[in-house]
Amino acid sequence: MYKWTMSVLIGIACVFGITVLFMTTAQHQSQTKQEASAPALPDTPLNSQAAEAIYKQSCIACHGNDLEGKIGPNLQKIGGKYSDKQLYGIVQNGRGGMPAFKSTLKDEEIVNLAKWLAEKQ
C-alpha cells in the first residue's frame, strides 16, 4: 500500500512539474511574440519632465494623478509588466478601452511617455 501511494504521489508531482514547465515556457514565448510584434522604438532620449506633462495632459483623466488608476488600469508598476517598446505600441495604437494616441501626440512624445512609464516598476 505504501509503495502504491508513493508511486501515485510521485506521478502527481511529475505531472504538476511538467504542467508548470509548459505554462512557463508558453508564457515566455507569448511575451517574446509580443515584444517582436511591437513597433520599433525610435531613438529618443527620455525627458521625464516632458513625459509627466504629456501624462497630465493626455492620461491623468483615466489613470489618475499618481498613476493609481481610475477608469484605466493602475500604471504605478507598469514597467514591470511591459517593456518601453510594448508600451510605445500600446500608447500609439490603443488597446481595449484605451484610445490610440498616434493621431493626437507626436511620435517623440509617445516614445518619451513609453520610456517614462517603463521606468515605473
From TrEMBL:
All residue ranges annotated as the Cytochrome c domain in the record: 46-121
Entries under Pfam families matching the protein: Cytochrome_CBB3 (PF13442)
Name of the protein in question: Cytochrome c-551
Keyword Glycoprotein part of the UniProt annotation: no
Membrane spanning residue stretches: 6-24
KW Transmembrane helix (keyword) present: yes
Keywords: Electron transport, Heme, Iron, Membrane, Metal-binding, Transmembrane, Transmembrane helix, Transport
